[in-house]
Design a protein that fits this description.
Layout lengths: L8 H7 L16 H4 L18 H15 L3 H13 L4 H10 L2 H7 L6 H9 L3 E3 L2 E2 L12 E4 L7 H10 L7 E4 L4 E4 L14 H8 L2
Antiparallel strand pairs: 1-2, 1-3, 3-5, 4-5
Amino acid sequence: MARYCDAVCRLCRREGVKLFLKGQRCLTDKCAIERRNFAPGQHGKSRRPKLVGYGLQLREKQKARRFYGILEDQFRAYYEKAAAMKGVTGATLLSMLERRLDNVVYRLGLATSRAAARQLVRHGHILVAGRKVNIPAFQVSPGQEIAVRERSRQMQTILRALDLLGGRVPHWLEFKRETMTGRVVSLPKREDVNFDIKEQMIVELYSK
């Protein structure tokens, strides 16, 4: 399984915005973008070039892809599925990304970052509708229950994440801490994505 294994802080610096890739560290003064708010590389301190047209579209696509922790081929596959569905392509794309199991685990407050949530899923700590699912890209549906496996409920990483992020569940999800179970109430809408992504630029990029 391919995945990004290099330093993630350089991704935030490249995009010039916090992508919250390292969980709690991103909220402290140790965040790389707080210390070095310039692009990585030999010429990073030079003035950022003014982007127009294709450059703006590419940066929006890269920002969204890195925000959700997805590689290029998989991200394009999401776009093609969204384009083939009824409705606004950009909003449909973001809805599909939000419904990834690793993102839902993160949104429920069970992990401090999407990378940590992905690891929980891959290691079999998460149940969907009572069955173990270890595929981070699994698409959850309204009415499905997401739960932490009973023998995993005392994991310090989960308890720490709940202490830090507990109670900040978006309205399309429900979560009960006492049983460590959540439920998908409805499909996420465009306004539920609490990050500045110009999805129309992504659609324009892939439509060329």
